[in-house]
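Technical note accompanying the year-one report. For the benefit of new consortium partners, we illustrate the data format agreed upon in the data management plan: each record pairs a sequence with a C-alpha cell string. No post-processing was applied to the example shown here.
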Amino acid sequence: MKGLTVMNQSKIRINKFLIHSIVYRLKKELNFQVDFLQINFVISGYILRLNNEYLSHNFTTDIITFNYSEESYKFDGEIFISINDALKNAKRYKVSLDVELLRLIIHGLLHLRGYDDINEADRKIMKKKEDFLVNKNLDLLKGKNLTYDY
C-alpha cells in the first residue's frame, strides 16, 4: 500500500505483506486514506524511552501512536508496537502473538481514526470496536504467519 511503511527493530521476523493486507482491509472498513503511516515493531527498551520522553510515563507499554494529522480520515502518523509487551499480552490473554499483533495494529489505527481510551467511557467504545474488528479480520491470519522465529 502506498504511503505505508513497516519497520522492524525486533529479532522476530514480521510478515510485512500481511500487515499491508490488514491495513488495506481496515482502510475500507474504517474509511480512511493513508498519506503517511509507519508501523514500527520495537523492543520494550525503545518504547520505554518513547513513553518517557513524549508522555512522561516511566514504564513500558504495548503500543504508542503518534498522530500528525488534523483530519481523522487522512492518516499521517506512526505506530510503535513493543514486541516484548505483545508477547506478554499474548501469554496473559492466551492468544497467539499473531492475534495480539493484529489487535495492536487495529488499536493503533483506531487511535489515528480518532478513537481514544483515556477515560472509561471512551475506552469501552474503543474496546468494543477493537474486539469487533479483530474478530472480523481473524480470517486474514488463516494459513498465514504474521510473525516468524519466536
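Partners are asked to follow this layout when depositing records. Residues 46 and 82 are 8 Å apart (CA to CA).
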